[in-house]
Design brief:
Layout: H1 5-13, H2 19-40, H3 49-78, H4 86-125
Helix pairs in contact: 2-3, 3-4
Length: about 130
């Protein structure tokens, strides 16, 4: 099944909901928690400032890519009338997929930065007898 037939099928599938419904509350909540982690660990674990700030920056960049790059393509694929050639829609889908690889890479970097920060915070704030040498 090629475009636009496959797009008509996908539009029927995503009629009631779509993955964006989940991320519309998850991403802002994650950004809020990263800001809180940055604020609350500013003094007790100063080495984590740049990692947590970087994680927040990468997550905001991911959101910017989503709004500026992916949403227009989602509109083409799932909202606008399907009046163009199948090659056009194949190109839009390919662009969307390539952009999604960038988003996944940014989110992976964010996760790694947060994990390293959590480990560092745990080590720096542990009581003296529990610290690893």
């Amino acid at each position: 099944m090629g475009a636009p037939t496959s797009l008509e099928h996908a539009r029927g599938f995503y009629h009631a909901t779509n993955p964006g419904m989940f991320f519309r509350w998850l991403v802002p909540a994650t950004q809020l928690f990263l800001v809180l982690a940055l604020v609350f660990n500013w003094r007790p674990a100063p080495d984590t400032r740049w990692r947590l700030g970087g994680a927040l920056g990468f997550l905001v960049l991911t959101d910017m890519i989503t709004f500026r790059f992916h949403y227009p393509r989602n509109d083409i694929l799932f909202v606008a009338p399907l009046t163009k050639s199948p090659e056009y829609y194949d190109h839009v889908v390919t662009e969307w997929a390539m952009g999604n690889y960038v988003r996944v890479a940014l989110i992976l970097i964010t996760v790694v930065l947060v994990m390293v920060s959590i480990i560092r915070i745990a080590r720096e704030t542990a009581p003296g007898e529990h610290r690893l040498s």
